TrEMBL record:
<feature type="active site">
    <location>
        <position position="50"/>
    </location>
</feature>
<feature type="binding site">
    <location>
        <begin position="129"/>
        <end position="130"/>
    </location>
    <ligand>
        <name>substrate</name>
    </ligand>
</feature>
<dbReference type="Pfam" id="PF17763">
    <property type="entry name" value="Asparaginase_C"/>
</dbReference>
<comment type="similarity">
    <text>Belongs to the asparaginase 1 family.</text>
</comment>
<dbReference type="InterPro" id="IPR027473">
    <property type="entry name" value="L-asparaginase_C"/>
</dbReference>
<protein>
    <recommendedName>
        <fullName>asparaginase</fullName>
        <ecNumber>3.5.1.1</ecNumber>
    </recommendedName>
</protein>
<dbReference type="InterPro" id="IPR006034">
    <property type="entry name" value="Asparaginase/glutaminase-like"/>
</dbReference>
<dbReference type="GO" id="GO:0004067">
    <property type="term" value="F:asparaginase activity"/>
</dbReference>
<dbReference type="InterPro" id="IPR036152">
    <property type="entry name" value="Asp/glu_Ase-like_sf"/>
</dbReference>
<dbReference type="Pfam" id="PF00710">
    <property type="entry name" value="Asparaginase"/>
</dbReference>
<feature type="domain" description="Asparaginase/glutaminase C-terminal">
    <location>
        <begin position="260"/>
        <end position="366"/>
    </location>
</feature>
<feature type="active site" description="O-isoaspartyl threonine intermediate">
    <location>
        <position position="50"/>
    </location>
</feature>
<dbReference type="InterPro" id="IPR020827">
    <property type="entry name" value="Asparaginase/glutaminase_AS1"/>
</dbReference>
<dbReference type="InterPro" id="IPR037152">
    <property type="entry name" value="L-asparaginase_N_sf"/>
</dbReference>
<feature type="binding site">
    <location>
        <position position="98"/>
    </location>
    <ligand>
        <name>substrate</name>
    </ligand>
</feature>
<keyword id="KW-0732">Signal</keyword>
<dbReference type="GO" id="GO:0006528">
    <property type="term" value="P:asparagine metabolic process"/>
</dbReference>
Length: 377
């Protein structure tokens, strides 16, 4: 894996050198906007969340109003420290809790990030932690540039004693400015830890060390002036190639509403009414969060069979939080999502259905893009 990472960084460096030499633009590894400057250009896009929250008092760690501070004010409070890292500009995309955003909002956020990356060397996005893992995976699947995209937030509002908010924002800007995660896709940076968008999940409702990446582990850490990367996402192997991009180019997908995909949770003696209702309500796809290796109750299974007959496509996941659901390659209408969490399988299924109606192609995307692994030679 270390060899693959070194090769990827060498590839990026070579492409940048070639671009500078001939004055040409190389897809995914173009001459940098900050080239020739003392510091890189970093755009910080604010969407709200706890990090921009205002507390009732200095010790009301859970009692606060989310999405109150402007991102420009938060960045200004970190000057002059961040000025030594990057030329930082800000954009206020929104200012509310992460769970209040819609898929249509996600689509607009991708457009904002793409636009910012055309003018900057990297982008930081601040958001709430409740659905941060979904924000991250969406951007990982839809942003077209291989420049660094770093998400951050906080578990405590900006205005309490011991808040993690300023440190997380500062470290996110530091990581973005370093450009060490070029070709990594979107990463999450909180609590000094760097996590990959595909694996990261929130594991605790209140603790500051809530985010981890399960069995795969974190990508690395930030220890004051030291950014230490221990591993890389598998897609880094494709750095500098057109195949680095995912197939989900939102500019080529109709502007109308994206497909409707829901999640049905299984448990002891679970009824099939949720699946029946989702299918009857116009769902194009449904993700089942099953027991063990994707098991669902008999009633849910019967409802799923009927929904498949009506053209609904299913992705099968586990509610356990780790492990994999492989499914059957011959089971029409049901795709094993391996170790994707239900909420991330939903996003991959949603984007897949937006791009094609070909179930075979969607299966391929789940087994390659959705479960990307390093290829050894």
């Amino acid at each position: 894996m270390r060899d693959a990472l070194r090769i990827a960084h060498r590839t990026t460096a070579l492409l940048l050198a070639l671009a500078a030499a001939v004055g040409a633009t190389v897809t995914g590894a173009s001459a940098e906007p900050g080239a020739g400057k003392d510091v890189p250009d970093v755009a910080v896009i604010g969407t709200g969340g706890t990090i921009s929250g205002v507390s009732t008092n200095r010790v009301s760690f859970q009692d606060y109003r989310s999405g109150q501070l402007a991102i420009s004010k938060m960045v200004d409070e970190l000057r002059p420290e961040v000025d030594g890292l990057a030329d930082v500009t800000t954009e206020q995309f929104g200012n509310k809790g992460s769970g209040s955003y819609t898929i249509a909002d996600y689509r607009r956020l991708t457009a904002s990030v793409d636009a910012a990356l055309k003018k900057n060397d990297a982008v930081v996005v601040t958001t709430g932690t409740d659905t941060m893992e979904e924000f991250a995976y969406w951007l990982d699947l839809t942003v077209r540039s291989d420049k660094p995209v770093v998400l951050t937030g906080s578990m405590r509002p900006w205005t309490v004693i011991g808040t993690d908010a300023p440190a997380n924002l500062y470290n996110a800007i530091k990581l973005a400015a370093s450009r060490k995660t070029t070709c990594y896709g979107t990463v999450v940076m909180l609590n000094d830890q760097i996590q990959a968008a595909r694996e990261v999940r929130k594991t605790n409702a209140l603790r500051m060390d809530t985010f981890d990446s399960g069995p795969t582990g974190e990508l690395g850490v930030i220890d004051q002036d030291n950014i230490r990367l221990h591993r890389a996402p598998a897609r880094v192997q494709k750095c500098g190639r057109s195949s680095w991009d995912t197939p989900f180019d939102l500019d080529t997908i109709d502007d109308g509403p994206l497909p409707k995909v829901e999640i049905a949770y299984s448990y002891q003696d679970a009824g099939g009414e949720a699946i029946t209702a989702f299918a009857g309500g116009g769902a194009d796809g449904i993700v089942t969060a099953g027991t063990g290796a994707g098991g669902i109750s008999p009633a849910m299974s019967a409802a799923r069979t009927e929904a498949v007959k009506k053209g609904v496509l299913f992705a099968s996941t586990t509610r356990t939080g780790s492990g994999a659901v492989y499914g059957s390659s011959t089971a029409t209408g049901v795709i094993g999502a391996e170790d994707l969490t239900p909420q991330k399988a939903r996003l991959l299924l949603l984007l897949s259905l937006a791009a094609t109606e070909d179930e075979k192609q969607i299966r391929e995307w789940f087994s390659t893009l959705g479960t990307a692994q390093f290829v050894t030679r």
